[in-house]
Amino acid sequence: MQLEVRPDPSEVGRARRWARSRLAGTGIRADEPLAETLILLVSELVTNAVVHTGCSAVLRLVLPGPGTGAGPAGTAGAGTGAGGAEEATVRLEVEDASDRAPVPRWVDGDATGGRGLALVDGLADRWGWSREGAGKRIWCELDRGAVREDPAPAGGGCDAEGGGDGDSDGDGDGTVAYDGFAYEAV
Fold first, then answer.
1. C-alpha distances in angstroms, 157 versus 77, 78, 120, 168, 177?
2. Are 26 and 62 in contact (CB under 8 A)?
3. Is the distance from CB of 19 to CB of 54 less than 8 angstroms?
4. What is the pLDDT of residues 28-66, one digit of tens each?
């Protein structure tokens, strides 16, 4: 399922409402943490697309069906995870016409923006991006019912170097090397 988004910041609210409305019938309650995280990630990725590219975008959601335990691309969720919730994977994609790669930004503590990719990195179980024709697609996935032994490692498994301990450059300061950039997830 998908939603076309115009290059207007007011579209971010419409994208959040659309995503919430799509949760009905999936077995994901609107008040469960997965739904709240999904809506936040929709907000961040759609904001990035409409504010930083000035182009229209397409928001796509791949949601499990009720009681299926199946995620996108045939991933199976046999059994239950934390709290008895069925395991499933939710995938969010935003495709835009800009060929500029997403770049994590460094901001100081008083900045009101610039943390979108750091939020995606910290909240999603996996994320990445790929070139699509003349533009790009940024995606992230959330696993429902999965029990994590550690919080999401910085780098989100997206081309990060190192062992996923949140310090891929090995100097103990918590910075992560990502596609040649080093940043610290906050």
1. 20, 23, 12, 11, 11
2. no
3. no
4. 888 889 999 999 999 999 999 998 888 899 999 998 876
- Beta-strand (E) ranges in the chain? 2-5, 57-62, 88-96, 126-132, 135-144, 176-178, 181-183
Distances from the Cα of 17 to the Cαs of 28, 39, 68, 131, in angstroms? 15, 9, 24, 27
Q: Look-up: residue for tokens 């990060």?
A: 160
Structure tokens at 181: 């950039």
Three-state DSSP class for 146?
A: coil
- Residues 56, 5 contacting (CB under 8 angstroms): yes
79: tokens are 């059994």
- Reference 25, options 66, 68, 85; nearest CA is 66
Digit-coded pLDDT (tens) for 62-77: 988 765 444 443 333 3
